[in-house]
Design brief:
By secondary structure, the chain is α+β, with helices and mostly antiparallel strands. The chain folds into two domains: 258 residues, Aminopeptidase, CATH 3.40.630; 112 residues, Alpha-Beta Plaits (2-Layer Sandwich), CATH 3.30.70.360. The protein is built from ten helices and 18 strands. The strands form five sheets. A six-stranded mixed β-sheet has the order 1-2-6-3-7-16, with helices on both faces. The protein has a four-stranded antiparallel β-sheet with strand order 4-5-18-17, with helices on one face.
Length: 376
């Protein structure tokens, strides 16, 4: 099988690149993946996939040989971090292809779709259980893993293993990084900057609150990492207006459940203290990703060993096991053995200068395809 996959992958590079470039040109902000979802559905159907459907969360779902028993779920997300609803252009210079979202996660999405076509072309079917392929929505930012949450509602109690293709080559996710994201809004009476001078300013009060947030003591137990960040600030009306309203987006993350709760307690205490001062503060939870649940350590090690051994065949580099925030968070929180691997070399993800090395796609396609066939 391995040699068969390598030969097919090498012969399929032009088709893979064309699929990748076609996908890149289709806008897909989180919650607005309709166009890309329709494209994925039609492309899979053109390769012989039957029963493909788009669910209410905008996931493209392909139940492959599902007989109602245990299933393995394979995903790659369709959304990007960019709000643009006009098509992007792919720029190619030698081995470098540049486009917003080309790596995260369009390259992995294209490779998974090509791998599905390989299974269909060769009539390769699982001997035990079934496989669910998902081009899933809303992985990024405030998408809040909506697509995977929907998949786990439907298939979670039958899922024995979960894989998502996201990120670059030669690393695998071993632990879920949970997060909580908040919109913090401050309101005041405001007024004219000269005539009403002395009135409370929402921007000033928000700034004071942010200073308090950055005085939170981040927990540091061994083998854990916890972080926090204010990502955006906006508010006010003009340079000569005392701001009536200001808001910020704030998040904290951790790969440890207890640390996440410690951050929550400190956050709540700061907000309450500001309210005691008389600040009109509103807090809205806009995103929440769970940490690792109680996953069977033997089964979890088995899935990690599987992908490490697979990737080790394609490189002399040490395979890095890392904590991360991905679609794996949902199944891992449910106790389902899960991991995430990627299929390209590149850099500058989440920027408009994002690029990939086209020559890396051959290795990536081979790894992703072989990863899937190991579950047959």
């Amino acid at each position: 099988m391995e040699q068969m996959i390598k030969k097919w992958s090498a012969e399929s590079q032009e088709e893979l690149k064309q699929l990748l470039f076609d996908l890149c040109r289709i806008p897909a902000p989180s919650h607005k993946e309709e166009l890309r979802a329709e494209f994925c559905k039609k492309w899979l159907e053109s390769k012989g996939a039957q029963g493909v459907y788009i669910d209410d969360a905008l996931n493209v779902v392909f139940p492959y040989c599902d007989n109602g028993g245990e299933v393995t779920v394979f995903e790659a997300h369709t959304d990007t971090v960019f709000p643009d609803m006009t098509p992007f252009d792919v720029k190619i210079e030698g081995d470098i292809a540049s486009c917003p979202g080309i790596g995260d996660d369009t390259a992995n999405l294209a490779e998974m779709m090509m791998a599905i076509s390989f299974l269909l072309k060769n009539d390769l079917k699982p001997k035990n259980g079934g496989i669910i392929f998902v081009c899933n929505s809303c992985e990024e930012g405030l998408g809040n893993l909506k697509g995977t949450r929907e998949i786990m509602k439907k298939y979670g109690d039958r899922t024995k293993e979960f894989f998502t293709f996201d990120g670059t080559l030669f690393s695998a996710v071993k632990r879920a990084v949970g997060s909580r994201r908040f919109r913090i809004e401050v309101k005041t009476i405001g007024g004219h900057s000269y005539g009403s001078y002395g009135n409370p300013n929402a921007i000033e009060q928000l700034a004071q609150l942010i200073v308090q947030l950055y005085r939170i003591k981040v927990p540091t137990p061994p083998d854990t990492k916890t972080t926090m960040n204010v990502g955006t600030i906006q508010g006010g009306t003009s340079v000569n207006t005392i701001a009536q309203q200001a808001e910020a987006l704030f998040e904290f993350r951790s790969d440890d459940r207890e640390c996440l709760e410690c951050m929550q307690r400190q956050f709540d205490a700061i907000i309450e203290a500001e309210r005691v001062k008389g600040f009109d503060v509103t807090v809205e939870l806009v995103g929440e990703r769970p940490c690792m649940g109680d996953v069977d350590p033997v089964k979890h090690k088995a899935i990690l060993d599987k992908v490490v051994n697979l990737m080790s065949k394609y490189t002399d580099k040490e395979i890095r096991l890392r904590p991360s925030s991905t679609d794996c968070n949902i199944p891992l929180s449910m106790g389902i053995p899960s991991t995430c691997i990627g299929g390209y070399h590149g850099a500058k993800a989440h920027t408009r200068q994002e690029y990939i090395e086209l020559s890396s796609l051959n290795t990536g396609l081979s790894i992703i395809t072989e990863c899937i066939t190991l579950s047959l």
